[in-house]
From TrEMBL:
4Fe-4S ferredoxin-type domain: residues covered: 1-29
Matches recorded under Gene3D superfamilies: 3.30.70.20
PANTHER family given in the database record: FERREDOXIN
Classification via InterPro entries: 3Fe4S_ferredoxin (IPR001080), 4Fe4S_Fe-S-bd (IPR017896), Fe-S_cluster_ET (IPR051269)
Keywords for this protein: Electron transport, Iron, Iron-sulfur, Metal-binding, Transport
Known role: Ferredoxins are iron-sulfur proteins that transfer electrons in a wide variety of metabolic reactions.
Entry annotated with the keyword Cell wall biogenesis/degradation: no
Record protein name field: Ferredoxin
Length: 63
């Protein structure tokens, strides 16, 4: 799984970083991917964060 955040869309709400801090981190006013998901729990969390992002800024690509 490859996760990315479109910084031009992100509004910095912090939801993804709160849900999966191992993957997402707020830097400045936007979320950045600090590490790709490594565990099943992180993958599920990243997938759910992508679905829950209010501005659809998170992209998840299956390898
Ligand atoms: S949930 Fe979406 S809008 Fe909110 S911080 Fe994460 S990427 Fe940005």
């Amino acid at each position: 799984m490859m996760v990315s955040v479109d910084a031009s869309r992100c509004i910095g709400c912090g939801m993804c970083a709160a849900a999966v801090p191992a993957v997402f981190q707020i830097e400045g006013r936007v979320s950045v991917v600090q590490a790709q998901p490594r565990t099943a729990a992180e993958e599920t969390g990243a997938f759910n964060a992508a679905n829950g992002c209010p501005v659809n800024a998170i992209r998840v690509r299956k390898n």
